[in-house]
From TrEMBL, chain A:
UniProt name for this protein: Uncharacterized conserved protein, DUF1501 family
This protein's UniProt keywords: Signal
Record's signal peptide: 1-27
Protein's UniProt keywords contain Signal: yes
Tagged with keyword Transcription regulation: no
PROSITE patterns according to UniProt: TAT
From TrEMBL, chain B:
Biological source species: Chryseolinea serpens
One protein family per Pfam: DUF1800
UniProt region (Disordered), positions on chain: 1-22
Name the record gives this protein: Uncharacterized conserved protein, DUF1800 family
Superkingdom classification of source: Bacteria
Taxonomic classification: Bacteria, Pseudomonadati, Bacteroidota, Cytophagia, Cytophagales
């Protein structure tokens, strides 16, 4: 198998000649560069809009839950019961399968102090891991910065989308956004862009800002070539459900099977802002989510790659405990968070059930800071010093 | 055509780049005069003398309301983009954009957004003190920073905190106690949601003594703003921000900034004088400050329209580009405003920026899908058009720019479009691209599009 470093040397020096950017190559000669043998992969799934956690993991024994949601609560006889107190929304049957196999960990009451109920601010807080300050970098971007000083390897973190989220932007390194390798390849091989990249090396550009632009361009082209060469052909993996979300996960699996050295994948799914007539919409979204995740896990398991993968699912906030007058729910606070991996030391429900007696103005009070989950994943899965990335120390947890 | 490098740099920073129709020699005094021209945006009207505020908890007409807010936000947004490129208001619009970012505010109501935008536009080149006072009493800002909830018995510190941290003094120049006491002074500052007018609610106001920045008294909100303006640090903070936006994003030249800040403070915060001092200085035109600024998405878009005189066939195209590049007017990510500099540029945004001219001028089709921000009530998530075409009078541009030889013409166009010269290799590439067409207008279109697709065009 062509190693990444050799591939770059071949393709950049040999085939496309002057495309090579010296500072770019140095990144791969840097002994601190991401080791190709390091196989642990993080997949982040973002449910945009604020998923209704209480109707996702249902406290079906709690009378208060039914009092607060007279027409929206999931009836106890419909709940897929897995503990004395909690069960899954019926659309999550596939996810229950992962639970039964010991792949699923669920944290309840995850949040942060002084919760913000605005979508964009709360999403930024989760993506920057900073409720206190407004930052221009995200936690995965800072992971890229910290893990590989001096190098610039955009495809170490890939977002399956046309635009790049703040989460994947570091000061020096930013992740790569793309829908699939073929589209990216076609986009940058649009003759003009490619020729500009080929004609100009960042080395010849003295101005630091312009240098940054040409460096970014060269990286984009080389990443596109690399990913296309490695994983350009659609995989002949198992069938996925028909949805945009599943399509993105299928592409992630394709890249993982092709053993590209990407450490973090970022996938999002929108539509969870269910203010009005929530029931049908939420049912549909949970079904798309759980079917997609399950197909993804099966695909990876079949070729023994699931052992290298951890999937974390979050949403920017939960909904209010009580339903509103439109058959929906409004923006709330603490929420559940899922971890799917074969390496769980603790399985199933990993902390307390939501406390519906002690509410803050009708909202759940968070019991676990999300930065503790990030810190644990950074420390025990991606194996980097979390403090470098989160700027403060947060207690790590024992689930992996 | 005025292709003097100093004029170009001035227009790149004080406006959105040189415009082809702008024939008068541009010097600072005429621009200062032109800046007095002030044109409010007035597309969102009250209905029966009342402002309709969005309220998601009214299911009956929720759909109709959402549709209306979609239309209004789109109209407000695209109207401003069109107004940015009017030759007679260029400078004021650029200043308005600067303050739109400094006093970042995001509310659902297009009417309130428009009202704040007009306040900022009116005061953009006047006294910063007046601007600060007007913005602090503006309903959109009071709403956004929760001052409606700031009451004597349950103070909300959000407004006071952001006024100190982001609008005036900056971090490190106040204490948490200053925020608490400042918040108490702002209790009772509110607005009437029906009329969208500021109201002071005496019963909600905390009349007790407050200690703020070392002074003690029964301060009102106005007193707090005066104390803040009496602090030279406010002049320093604002001058630094102006420096980073209009002069250079790197570390400021401390001597120059200190001297500007001093004059700014003693001029009673006269913004006109401050900006004139910047643009009429000799250092402003030094190579170290030319062509190093990464255009924000709105600057890039407004620049492309300004420099071609183009108009979108469907004005909603402007919204598509703002979404695709993550800077939507009236929807800053938070009260800290938009990111700056290299934060705008990643693999996908750069590739998109380089494709953008072809989408606008050559009818190239894109499958690019901007992100949904998750908010079911954010009308702009749904506002999409696939007609990204822009009508440009290429024949007239060909007439203006064509010289005796192709080489000369390309040089003139390059000077006009790029803040700093590009490489010989890129010039050749542009020439090849342009040579595909023999007709003058088509040739000019190809040349403009190619130059605008270069990384160099991302800089001003």
């Amino acid at each position: 198998m062509t190693s990444r470093r050799n591939f770059l040397k071949q393709s950049l020096l040999g085939a496309t000649g002057s495309l090579l950017v010296p500072t770019f190559l140095k990144a791969f000669e840097n002994p601190n560069a991401f080791a190709e043998t390091h196989d642990k992969i993080l997949v982040v799934v973002q449910l945009s809009g604020g998923n209704d956690g209480l109707n996702t993991i249902v406290p079906y024994r709690n009378d208060l839950y039914y009092q607060h949601r007279p027409s929206l609560a999931v009836a106890a006889d419909k709940v897929l019961k897995v503990s004395d107190e909690l069960g899954f929304h019926p659309a999550l049957a596939p996810l229950q399968g992962l639970y039964d196999r010991g792949y699923l960990g669920v944290f309840n009451n995850v949040g942060y102090p002084n919760p913000d109920r605005s979508h964009f601010r709360s999403m930024d807080i989760w993506q920057t891991a900073s409720p206190e300050r407004y930052l221009q970098t995200g936690w995965i971007g800072r992971y890229l910065d910290a893990n590989c000083p001096g190098c610039s390897v955009a495809d170490q973190a890939i977002e399956l989308d046309d635009t790049l989220s703040l989460a994947l932007k570091g000061d020096n390194i930013k992740g790569l956004a793309m829908k699939d390798p073929r589209k990216l390849y076609n986009a940058v091989h649009h003759s003009f862009i490619h020729e500009v990249a080929q004609n100009n090396t960042a080395a010849t550009v003295n101005d630091p800002t312009l240098h940054y632009l040409y460096k970014t361009l060269a990286e984009t082209v080389s990443s596109a070539d690399f990913l296309y060469q490695k994983a350009g052909a659609p995989s002949s993996g198992p069938d996925y459900p028909q949805s945009d979300f599943s399509k993105k996960l299928k592409t992630v699996a394709q890249l993982i099977h092709a053993r590209v050295p990407t450490r973090v994948y970022y996938v999002s799914m929108a539509g969870f802002d269910t203010h009005v007539n929530q029931q049908a919409q939420h049912q549909r979204l949970l079904q798309l989510y759980s079917e997609g995740i399950t197909a993804f896990v099966e695909d990876l398991d079949k070729r023994d790659r699931m052992k290298d993968v951890l999937i974390m699912t979050f949403s920017e906030f939960g909904r209010r405990v009580a339903q509103n007058a439109s058959g929906g729910t409004d923006h709330g606070t603490a929420n559940n968070l899922f971890v799917v991996t074969k390496h769980l030391k603790q399985k199933g429900f990993l902390n307390n059930t939501p406390d519906l007696l002690k509410l803050d103005n009708g909202d759940l009070i968070h019991q676990l800071d999300f930065r503790s989950v990030y810190a644990t994943i950074l420390d025990r899965w991606l194996e980097v010093e979390p403090k470098k990335i989160l700027s403060d120390a947060y207690p790590t947890l024992d689930f992996i | 055509m005025n292709n003097d490098p100093k004029t170009r740099h001035f227009l790149n920073r004080a406006a959105f780049g040189p415009a082809p129709g702008l024939k008068t020699p541009v010097n600072t005094p005429t621009w200062i005069k032109s800046a007095s021209h002030h044109r409010p945006i007035d597309v969102i009207r009250k209905v029966d003398g009342t402002v309709m505020l969005p309220d998601q908890r009214q299911p009956k007409d929720a759909k109709a309301r959402r549709a209306r807010f979609l239309d209004e936000l789109t109209e407000l947004n695209t109207t401003w983009i069109s107004q940015m490129v009017l030759p007679e208001t260029l400078w004021r619009e650029k200043m308005t954009l600067f303050w739109h970012d400094h006093f970042a505010c995001r509310v659902r109501s297009a009417f309130l957004s428009q009202q704040l935008n007009n306040v900022v536009r009116r005061e953009a080149l006047g006294s910063f003190g007046d601007l600060l006072k007007a913005v602090s009493k503006d309903p959109a800002m009071l709403q956004f920073l929760n001052n409606q909830q700031n009451k004597k018995n349950s103070p909300n510190e959000n407004f006071a905190r952001e006024v100190l941290e982001l609008f005036t003094l900056g971090r490190g120049h106040y204490t948490e106690a200053d925020i608490r006491n400042g918040a108490r002074a702002f209790t009772g500052w509110a607005f009437n949601p029906k009329t969208a007018a500021f109201v002071f609610r005496p019963r909600a106001h905390d009349e007790g003594p407050k200690t703020f920045k070392g002074k003690t008294g029964n301060f009102s909100g106005d007193d707090i703003l005066h104390i803040i303006l009496d602090d030279r640090q406010t002049a320093q903070f604002i001058t630094e921000k102006i420096w980073r936006y209009f002069v250079h994003e790197g570390p400021p030249d401390e001597d120059i900034v200190a001297s500007l800040a001093k004059d700014f403070f003693h001029s009673d915060y006269n913004l006109h004088k401050l900006m004139a001092a910047v643009f009429s200085s000799s250092w402003f035109y030094e190579p170290r400050f030319v062509g190093h600024r990464i255009k924000s998405p709105v600057e890039l878009l407004a620049g492309m329209l300004t420099q071609t005189g183009g108009r979108f066939e469907d004005p909603r195209a402007a919204l598509f580009f703002q979404r695709a590049l993550s800077q939507i007017l009236f929807q800053p990510p938070n009260v800290g405003g938009w990111p700056t500099g290299t934060a705008w540029i990643d693999s996908s945004s750069l590739a998109f920026r380089m494709t953008m001219p072809a989408l606008i001028f050559k009818n190239l089709i894109t499958e690019y899908v901007p992100k949904d921000d998750g908010d079911a009530n954010n009308a702009t998530n749904k506002a999409a058009t696939r007609n990204l075409n822009c009508a440009v009078d290429w024949a007239s541009l060909a007439q203006q720019f064509t010289k005796a030889s192709t080489g000369e013409t390309l040089a003139v166009v390059e000077d006009f479009l790029l803040a700093t010269p590009t490489t010989a290799a890129n010039r050749k590439l542009v020439a090849t691209q342009a040579a595909r067409s023999t007709r003058d207008d088509e040739w000019m279109k190809q040349a403009f599009t190619a130059f605008m697709s270069l990384p160099e065009y991302q800089l001003s």
